[in-house]
Fold these 2 entries.
Entry 1:
Amino acid sequence: MRKMIAIALKDLRIRFSNPMEWAFFLILPVFFSLIIGGSTGAPADSRVGFYVVDEAQTSLSTSLVDALNASTSVRPELKDRQEALKDLDERKVSAVLLLPAGLEWDAISTAAQSVELRQLAGNTNAFVVQQGVQAALGEVSSAVQIASFSTQQGEQLVGFASQAERSAWFSQALSLAQTALQVTPNRVLETIADVADPVQYDPKTNSSIGQMITWVFIPLIGLSGMLAYERQIGTLRRLFTSPTSRAVYLGGTIIGMVLTAMLQMTILIAFGKLVLHVNWGNSVLAIAMMLVSSTLAAAALGTMLGTLVKTESQASGLSIMVGMVLAMLGGCWYPLELFPQTVQTVVRVLPTTWTMQGMLDITLRGQGPSGVVLEMLVLFGFALVFFVVGIWRFKYE
Amino acid sequence: MKKLFIIALKDMKLIFRDPTALIMMLLAPFLITLGMGLITGRFSANTNSGISNIPVAIVNQDEGELGKALEAVFSSDELADLLEPTFAATPAEARQLVEADQASAAIIIPQGFSASIIPDERGSTSGETVQISFIANSNSPTYSGILRSILDAFLTQVEVGRIGAEVTLSQVAQTGKLTPELAAQLGAVLGTQFGQQSAQAQPIQLENTTASGAAVKFDLLMYFAPGMALMFLMFTVSNGGRTLLLENRTGTLPRMMQTPTTSAQILGGKLLGIFLTAIAQLAILIGSTTLLFRLDWGEPLGVILLILAAAFAASGWGSFIATFSKTPAQVANLGSVIMLFFGLLGGSFFDMSQLPEWVSTLGKITPNAWGLQGFTTLAGGGTLRNISEPLLALLIMGIILFALASIWMRRRGLVRK
């Protein structure tokens, strides 16, 4: 045991002798959690924000802005043209609606007019804005459609003696239509279904946990680098000339990394609780179960990768890449529930998916030890498989 | 000049022979882009928006025209890619599909819905408001929002048809040229006729354009692919800077100094090597995503200029990082950290429109932000004129950083005879 502790301490000294290690250990996870957690989603108003440039300044454009304000899916904000387009260029906003000068009731009664929705290419929010604007346009232009139709029918059924008579008919129809449209009955009764496994998404919680998993998995997968480093510089061979077994060496290295990762997670949990106000529940045991099982699974994955890499730098690159891909596919960056159904099923083969699920069970679903037993067992299963392959295939020289 | 290129090509060769460098330069951005495509449904969808096949359960208990019309809207060819309707027999069955998370919403059209809106032959309706039941799935707020928008658009047309007929007939009746009985008979006909007409001719048309004024082409990978390529470009350039210190440590740099080669040629060659490697990386990633994911990056000349400008600015950063580091390992570590910071600040991970304003302002120091702005503008149909600002910003960034790096490298005596 003493030897294992000595090896673990030696590894820690080597690892933290590099000041940059602190960036991965604390700075990056905290920075990412703060920015992503503090910005994704706005619980007070979840509508998608966009800009409206009202160069018309008419009652029609005002009606349109009012209809957009009443929308349940989009949130308009009035800006001047230059500022709005500059922000769109700089990707600060997903869409800008341009209401041109001359957009008036009279103008649209004689010929169709266009408004332009400028948007970011390949942006989901812009797609939502498009739907919302289309609905508002339909609502506002309804009165004109009705008045035009009535005038057209009036011409056929009654006939107009002069243009003035025609205009008077149109004005009356427009007024009647606007009044009638204001008192249309609500023809939809909307309810929210009681979904069996509701997604309880909270930007701060998801971001805090997701970033914690990302930045704990990357160094643990980088354990392969620690093994490669010792092998590369020959200290591993020298170590085995001393009365130290291979099991003690691997045990010491792995335990050192796992304990450091658990410390890192504890600090990040405390940060999430104190700064981001993540509700980590009351069950220390449930948190401990997830910490131990997830760090072991990640360390085992690092050990297995240690059989594939030859140099420390290879391991460094591979651990960042594998860590990021696993985190992304495991739902650490975007909620898993947003993924296509097939992908949701496929990603269950990843340890990050189970870690994220277990952590969300504790924080968002308020579950205790019994609620995370399955996740813990699956993660232990991953650890077992990865360790067996890693130790079996490990190249000591 | 020849010596400059020999040194640059030698560096490029060394980097492209290093499996670690290749993992980070090419494999990582490619895999993450692929992953983004998978999780956003880009590869499984028939459209590039990532929004498709929205499951919706519909129950039609109405015997009238409107129920059938609403069914037809949800199963129309126009919405075939977007929606995946299931026609359930009972409201309970539809609700169950939502509760089991198999439908984003259920729409139940009750009996008597049409009769409550369309007047009968006597000109009267049932008098009561019969409501359609919309059951939303709380797990799919975006999808149920889209379904609700489609339902609302249909009901707007119905309402417009109803009021259109009422207004027309009341005005005609006021003239005394139509009997109330005839007006009642015409009511239903006019309502239906107008409902269909108005759906086709909106007096205010919406033109969807990109920031540069071109028609919108929706493809999520057009954002993620350049985002990841630019993020891992930072690895490439810092790795290039690392080779400078590595050569100094292994003694090949001092040996090079003994040859009839000026220090300017050596430094220029090393920096050119970083620049050319960065260009090669971007070109390979853009080429491979074009072939494999069928991405349209936009105007070729614009793309080439943007590759050159982004590689130039990023190489400036790579050289600058190298001047601050003492050992090759320090450059590699600092490079990885800066790569990730710049990735976040420059919008490689998340769209800038979703991040706080101070992040996008701070992001201006990164080649990622300017590069992404340029690449997405081009992909959205932009032209050279539209990317002049990011091009200029990247050039200025590169010039300043290269100048600073050259000055400090000379001061450190890194390439001094």
Note: The longest strand of chain A covers residues 48-54.
Entry 2:
Amino acid sequence: MTNLNRRHILSGLSFLGASSLLEGTAFAQNIQNKARIVIIGGGFGGATAAMTLKKYAPNFDITLVEPKTSYYACPFSNLVIGGVRDTTAQSFTYAGLKALGIQVVHALAGNINSNLKTVTLSDKTSRPYDKLILSPGISMQMDSIDGYDAEAKNRMPHAWTGGSATAKLAKQITDMGDGGTVVISVPAAPYRCPPGPYERASLIAHYLKYYKPKSKLIILDAKDSFSKQDLFQDAWAELYPNIIEWRGASNDGRVIKVDARENKVFTDFETLTPDVANIIPPQRAGIIAEQSGLTDISGWCPIDPIDFRSTLKKDIYVIGDATIAAPMPKSAFSAAVQAKICALQILREFSGRAPIPTTLTNTCYSFIDPEHAISITGVYSNADQRLTTIPNSGGLSPRNARKSGMLSEAHQARDWFRSMSYNAFGDA
Amino acid sequence: MILKLRALKFVVLCLTFCAVSACQAQTKQTETQSISQGALLSVACANCHSRSGQGSPNISDLSEARMQKYLMYYKSDIAGTSVMHRLSRGLSDEDIRLISAYYAQKND
């Protein structure tokens, strides 16, 4: 029996009102050859969603819209800034996705019409979709720090979205003379990669310790506590005792103003003139999310975590850093897990079955020096339209762990990066 | 009129029979399309171990029973501090059973 005959019979039954028994199958048959899924954003979230959908449903028409032709990963980029990893190791192309039959369109996504279910791209084409997945990442709140403009972004690179700014920050540090000062300014939560600034501080301090030992690194923090705090501070006390100074919010740590031309960084009560200023501004969801009405007053995207569908627009899903998904952190691992959950629940829906609650996890490693790492894990439930941490699960590497334990975690971290990149970008 | 009704009933019966047969013939295919709880639970494992289990560490040679035993050990070992200990504590016994069954089936 051909698909055509089956479809006719099923549609006939549907007409006669006898479809309930077969609804799921009928839907699956009808949709199998023509379901169109458009994914906006080719980072870990978007690329993993595309790969997952294509592997499970090869007949689906999957389009990934991403303006850049190469992706520069943020995980492990602090090793580049610390001078112990080459930038090229962070770069991935989309050849692996194309080889699987995913259409990769290098254009900027513009207007999303959620009624007509189309996306207009910068190449003037319009893409129809049955389901739209946004993985737009983050954008910087340019107006959140007085004086933070395009010039400041250039001279005081945040290096928080991969790419050339990572190499630029690394070069500023290697160009700095011995006895210089590096400032890292850290925003209040939520922001991408909660332990990232402290891993960065550790790896820059490692470089300074060996190449510019008279130098200092000051972390100006808009918070009074941070991810993996005890573990980082133990490591700093042991490895970089005279190099790293951390100032929390209640110790005048919050940066309120910068002057890029004079290389000045202002807190409430002090003006610093560092040699290198790494200003990481407060963040919100990627620009397209706000333009498309997918963000709430917080600047982030509310979702139903059962399948990461937007609670604001029908048939649109948001995954990754742009979502309101606490207690899941804004990490590449979380984005990849969310991408797969979203993709699989969409496939369930296409086969006529409702999404089901499940268990999600996150695992993030941070290097304290090039050979040793610490980790944080979390296990979450997405039942009852909210994400909750499962009691007595997850947590941090132990304090006072042996060096061998941290060596082993660094080894795991490298495998974690390799595997996660492969899941997202294939052999590219 | 009665004849017409009988004819319609016959058509409906035939259509139902055909459709149910079609449905059964398609069961295998739709099973691969329909996503199980095991598949959903295993996505996070696959971030490191890959969907086939051949990631790192490679778990593709583990039998269902052995994987279940290892995960139950990680979950119940109170003193354990590894990533796998911490993650397994968040899994229910049923989660562990489903994950082990899913990966074992992948390895066949």
Note: Chain A has two domains: 3-140+284-356, 150-283.
